[in-house]
Amino acid sequence: MSLPYAADAELSLSPSELSVLASQYQSELATGHVTTQTKFNYAWGLVKSKSRDEMSRGIGLLTEIYRSDPPRRRECLYYLSLGHFKMGNYDEARRFNALLIEREPNNLQAQSLNSLIEKGVAREGYIGMALMGGAAAVGGVLLAGLLRRRR
């Protein structure tokens, strides 16, 4: 199976495309047996969504496949990493992507996603530092005001 590069995976399916995958999944679910491929296809579509709820459901389905079907773990790792990345769960994204890179050091999709994850971690760090700096500045102003009142 060919996996898309991380940048390509940012493209969402159209509602009608996702609906086809959902219908297939629901149809098999109603029979009491969902094939791993159908579950994977639906999870893949959900992870590519812009909706956090759908991404979360996709991660849940991929986690089920990862746990129950060892031969499918490789293809699940990338999308588990991608889903966590898109949701801002950088530690989980790193963990799954590291497992994939460990198995396949030359995997260009995993390398590309790794770059995106690291940029996300750095961006989150900068935002955190800015928030801490802002909180410190507000705290300093409040403290200065309290000290002036006491005099």
From TrEMBL:
CDD domains: Fis1 (cd12212)
Protein task: Has a role in mitochondrial fission. Has a role in outer membrane fission but not matrix separation.
BP GO terms, sorted: autophagy of mitochondrion; mitochondrial fission; peroxisome fission
Keyword tags: Membrane, Mitochondrion, Mitochondrion outer membrane, Repeat, TPR repeat, Transmembrane, Transmembrane helix
Principal localisation: mitochondrion
Transmembrane portions of the chain: 126-147
PANTHER family assigned to the protein according to its UniProt record, in alphabetical order: MITOCHONDRIAL FISSION 1 PROTEIN, TETRATRICOPEPTIDE REPEAT PROTEIN 11 TPR REPEAT PROTEIN 11
Cellular component GO terms held in the UniProt record: mitochondrial outer membrane; peroxisomal membrane
Family: Belongs to the FIS1 family.
Topology in membrane: Single-pass membrane protein
Record localization: Mitochondrion outer membrane
InterPro entries named among the record's database cross-references: Fis1, Fis1_cytosol, Fis1_TPR_C, Fis1_TPR_N, TPR-like_helical_dom_sf
Name of the featured protein: Mitochondrial fission 1 protein
UniProt remark on domains: The C-terminus is required for mitochondrial localization, while the N-terminus is necessary for mitochondrial fission.
A family per Pfam: Fis1_TPR_N
